[in-house]
Amino acid sequence: MATVEESEDYFVREIEKNDGSVLRMYQCSKGDVGCVVWDAAIVLSKYLETEQFCSVQSGVSTWSSKNIIELGAGTGLVGLVAATLGGGNVEEFLPHPHYILMADCIYYEQSVEPLVETLKLLAGPETCIICCYEQRTVGVNPEIEKRFFELLLQEFQSEEIPPEKQDPEFNSPDIRILHLRRRVD
């Protein structure tokens, strides 16, 4: 009998964390969006480990005891990394989580409005949404991205994270990281 690692239906993606530990993600060889470790999920996961969030010298992590929700990141890599860095139980986020993590959620036209509405419902005045997405330039993707930001920026302000604040190895010119917060009028 074949093990999961030997199966033709799966292959293993190993993501090494900065502390040397390794997360082994079983990715489907065939399937839909939830079966894949997306590049934006890896970029966001590595961003969560950067010095601005995790001090190597002191061992202090911004994520310790923070309530975090992950929205749509394929196999859940981002949420798993956040949990290994000390992220709290998602059941305890009421009334609002400290962080909402989103990786590669902006590409289905039919999900744009429900996604923005979900963010409006979940995000409180202190919530930081960290949105990481691959900027796609073919087909209807530019229009979907444009529509998403038209709706989102009515309620939220956006700050793009420059490459020098991202992981030096795990970044890409076509993958953007944004910090989003509710507008304060």
TrEMBL record:
Presence of keyword Transferase: yes
Molecular functions (GO terms): methyltransferase activity
One Pfam family this sequence matches: Methyltransf_16
Gene Ontology biological-process entries: methylation
Protein's UniProt keywords contain Methyltransferase: yes
GO cellular component, one term: cytosol
UniProt entry keywords in alphabetical sequence: Methyltransferase, S-adenosyl-L-methionine, Transferase
Record-linked InterPro entries: Methyltransf_16, SAM-dependent_MTases_sf
Protein name: Uncharacterized protein
